[in-house]
Amino acid sequence: MTDIHKGLEDVHIDTSSISRVFGDEGKLNYAGYWISDLAAHSSYEEVTYLLIEGELPDEDQLARFEDTLTQHRALPEQTMTVIKQMKDHNPMDVLRTAVSSLSTAQPGQGFDSGWNKEQAHKIIAAIPTIVATLDRVRNGKTPIEPRDDLSHAANFYYMLHDEEPTETEAEAVDTALILYAEHGMNASTLAAITTASTQANIYSAITSGIGALQGPLHGGATETVVETLDTIGSADQVDAFVEHEVEHHELIPGFGHRVYNTTDPRCKEFERVFRDLAEDPEHNERLDLIEALRDEVVGELGDKGIYPNADLYSGTVYRSLGIEPDLYTCMFTMARVAGWTAHVFEQWDDNRILRPRVQYTGETGKAYVPPSER
């Protein structure tokens, strides 16, 4: 009997130099650099370059890469049409379709690595514009043209709100993007490289990643956490909530991870960002609620390896930035496209089509019977 690993648990399908999750230690490494250092000192553009190229850029390389992204922020007309026609649909459905539509503005090149890398840069640059444009169009507002004098993060905030962010707000968006830029062989990354392994182009690979990220057990979890916090209401209601959920064997959003056996290291960075943004009593009450929930869940379930994950904090950061809850998974996409791109190109460097097998448990040898005799 062949061993079955449901959910591919503990199955290693390849080697990678892009990132490493230290699950037992609660640490995360991007291409040799600790996430805490990158979150504190780097930029999303720099981290994206690091993930794709394998090393941090020097000043000239970074400037050229930033210019490349800046040049591709504007959307082709057909993508704008897609957004306007789909504005009342789920934002992730719109984003997935809009990213796919970007390919129609490009002449077909077959499977060419140089062309695919150029297109990858266009996708990374365009996704923030898609998200901001969708939010404005669905709210009856005029889309804002991207600017070339703002960073990736600051320009997104500007296009979303039609005002420049403060330095703290821009840094908050930037840090959030860095923290979600990459996380090893997760479900959406696997989807992206599975498509890439067939030598489909980068648009198909990234679209596959977006589709997998949409689910509530992956990227959609951030929105669920915010809904849960709203349901609890205040710190003094935490004990009763947790007691009920534990008694009924319910999953508590924002806790537990397939890889981490302790607190997700991104939690500390998101908490720092949230504290930087906190300016009124409502923020402090929200933080009190999160901390009370964290302490109670860890006290009840920590011995079972249930600890906070990044989703516990990220949605609250997004809310503080004036971002609607149904855009939180889109924010995840804006960040993770860097990691997907890096893994796709790593897959292509030594490609073998992904073709796992399943163990058949059905019957054999059944005789065909015509419909009239069944």
User: Structural class from helices and strands?
Assistant: mainly alpha
Query: In CATH terms, what is the architecture of the largest domain?
Result: Orthogonal Bundle
Q: Tell me the number of strands.
A: 3
- Number of DSSP helices? 16
What characterizes the major β-sheet? 3 strands, antiparallel
Output the helix-strand order. Answer: EEEHHHHHHHHHHHHHHHH
Q: Which overall shape is indicated by the principal axes computed on the Cα atoms?
A: globular
Determine and state the CATH class of the largest domain: Mainly Alpha
Mean pLDDT figure:
94
Are there runs of 5+ residues with pLDDT below 50, and where? none
Could you name the CATH homologous superfamily of the largest domain?
Citrate Synthase, domain 1
What is the straight-line distance between the termini? 34 Å
> Regarding quaternary structure, how should these chains be classified?
single chain
Which range best describes the helical content: under 10%, 10-25%, 25-40%, 40-55%, 55-70% or over 70%? 55-70%
* Strand residue percentage: under 5%
Radius of gyration: 22 Å
User: How many structurally independent domains?
Assistant: 2
Strand order of the largest sheet: 1-2-3
What fold name goes in the CATH topology slot of the largest domain?
Citrate Synthase, domain 1
Question: Mind explaining what this structure looks like?
Answer:
This protein has 374 residues and is mainly α. The protein folds into two domains: 19-217 and 325-349, Citrate Synthase, domain 1, CATH 1.10.580.10; 221-320, Orthogonal Bundle (Cytochrome p450-Terp, domain 2), CATH 1.10.230.10. It is built from 16 helices and three strands. The chain has helices at residues 35-41, 44-53, 59-71, 77-85, 91-102, 113-138, 152-161, 167-179, 187-196, 202-213, 221-232, 238-247, 266-277, 281-301, 311-320, 328-349; strands at residues 19-22, 27-30, 33-34. Strands 1-2-3 form a three-stranded antiparallel sheet. Helix 6 runs parallel beside helix 7, helix 7 packs across helix 8 and helix 13 runs parallel beside helix 15.
